[in-house]
């Protein structure tokens, strides 16, 4: 089962923008002194990295 190009593109942008939003929240938590703020930033960075990796996957898909 091949994912459609439009679905992969939507997932890419959701992951990248959602991860950046979560990173901003995590940075605010770190500045406020919350001990779990660093964990939120790390998790957000992983989500953004997955989104960026999907950009490469998208470049390999052929539109049908």
Specify Rg, calculated over alpha carbons. Answer: 15 Å
**pLDDT < 50 runs, ≥5 residues:** none
Q: Please describe the biggest sheet, giving its number of strands, its sense, and whether it closes into a barrel.
A: none
Summing up helix and strand content along with how strands pair, one would put the structural category as mainly alpha
Helix and strand sequence: HH
Strand segment count: 0
Query: What does the overall shape look like?
Result: rod-shaped
Number of alpha- plus pi-helical segments: 2
The overall average pLDDT, rounded, is 91
Indicate the percent of residues in helices: over 70%
Strand content: under 5%
The first-to-last residue Cα distance is: 13 Å
Describe the structure.
It contains two helices and no strands. With 64 residues, the chain is mostly helical.
Question: What features would you highlight for this structure?
Answer:
64 residues; 2 helices; 0% strand; rod-shaped
Task: Briefly characterize the structure.
The protein has 64 residues and is mostly helical. The protein has helices spanning 5-32, 37-60.
List the helices and strands and how they pair.
Layout: H1 5-32, H2 37-60
């Amino acid at each position: 089962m091949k994912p459609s190009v439009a679905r992969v593109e939507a997932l890419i942008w959701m992951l990248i923008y959602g991860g950046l939003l979560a990173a901003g929240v995590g940075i605010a938590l770190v500045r406020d002194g919350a001990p779990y703020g660093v964990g939120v930033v790390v998790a957000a960075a992983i989500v953004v990295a997955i989104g960026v990796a999907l950009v490469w996957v998208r470049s390999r898909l052929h539109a049908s």
